[in-house]
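Listing S7. Sequence submitted for prediction.
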Amino acid sequence: MSAHATAAAHAHAEDHVPTMWERLPWMAAALGFLGCLAGYVFEGPKNFAHAYLVAFMFFLSLGLGAFFLVVIHHLFDAYWSVPTRRFLEHLACLLPWMALFFLPIGLLSGDLYYWMNVDPAKDHSLAVKQVLFNKATWGVASAALFGIWWLWTHRLRGWSLRQDETGAAECTTAMRRWAASGIFVFAFSLTAAAIFWMKSLEHQFFSTMYGVYYFAGSVWMTLATAYAIALLLRRSGRVPMMGQEQFHSLAKLLFAFTVFYAYIHFSQYFLIWNAAMPEETFWYAKREQGTWAIVGWVIILGHFVLPFLVLLRIDAKLSTKVVIPIFVWVWLMHHLDLQFNIMPLVQPEGPAFLISTLGALLFIGGLLAALFLWDLRRHPAFPLKDPRMGEVVRH
C-alpha cells in the first residue's frame, strides 16, 4: 500500500462528518421517538409492539448480514473485499447495541407472543414445544444472543484495528480463526433469533427453512447497503481504492442472493403446501386473506422478478442511475417482507399505515446511523495494513 494512501487514511480518520450528516440521524431519532410514543398511546400497545418488532428485525438483519460478509471475507481471503471490510465491521458491531432496542420487545413480550399468556396444558401445539417456548428460555436465549454477537464482532474488529497499528501476521491469523468459528456461530445465532423473536409469534408454525429464509433476506439487504456506503466513501475520497471490481462484485452477490432468496421462499411454500399439514399451511392461508394476497404478489414480483431482470446486465451493475433506485427498492421490499411475516397478526385483512411503523424505523435507524458515523469517524475508513491491500491498489 502506498504511503500517500496511508497518510490520506489517517487524515480522513481525524476528519469530522459534515454537520448536516451529524445532526440528521439525531433529528430522525428524536422524531421517531415521538412517533413511537404517539403510536403506543393512540394505536395501542399491541399494534405498537408488532410494528416495533418489524423495525427491530429489519435493522437486526443489517447487522447480521454485515457479520456474515466480514466472516466470509476472512474465510475466502478475497482481495476485492478488503476495502469494504472496515465499514462492514462497523455495521456488524451495531449488533450488541441492538440489545438496547430490544428492551421494548422484552417489556411488551406479553402483547407479542401468544404463548406467554397460555397454559400449555390447554394448547397441545405449545405443550410439545414448551421446552423452547417458555419465558425463562426465551429470556436467557435472547441475552445469550447479544452476548455472542458482542464477542465475535468486537474480536474481529479489534484484531482488524490492531492490524492497522502493527501489520503483524498474528492479526490476520487471529481474524481467520475467529471467522472459522464465527460462521457456525452466525448460522446458529441467526436461526435462533429468527425462531425466538419472529417465528414464535405463531408458535404452531413448523418450518425447517425459516432461519435460512431470514438469512437470505438479511444478506440481500446488507449487500445493497454496502454498495451504497462504498459509493459514498469513494466519492468522499475516504476510500480511494474502491474501484470497479468492488462495485461489480457486490452487485453480483446482490444478484446471487436475489435468486437465492426466491429459491428459499419458494421451496418453503412448495414443501408446506404440498404436505398440506394444517400446522404448517395455516401460516400461508392467513397471508392470503384480504389485501395480504396482493402483498404476496408484490413480494414475488418486487423481491425477485424486478431486481433479477434489472441486475442481469453487467453494465447495469455499475450504473448508479440503475443501482441507486434498486437499493431503495431493496430496502422497501425487505421491510415489506418482514411486515408480511409479522403484521397479519394485528392486521388480518391487510396492511394499514401505522404511526408506530414510521416512528420505530426513524428511532432505531437514526440512532444506529449516528453510532455508525461515530465509528467511521474514529477509525481509518479501510484496513491500512491488510496483507492483500497491495493487490487492491494494483488492480
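Caption to Listing S7: primary sequence and predicted C-alpha cells for the chain studied. The chain has 18 helices and no strands. Residues 1-17 have pLDDT under 50 and may be disordered.
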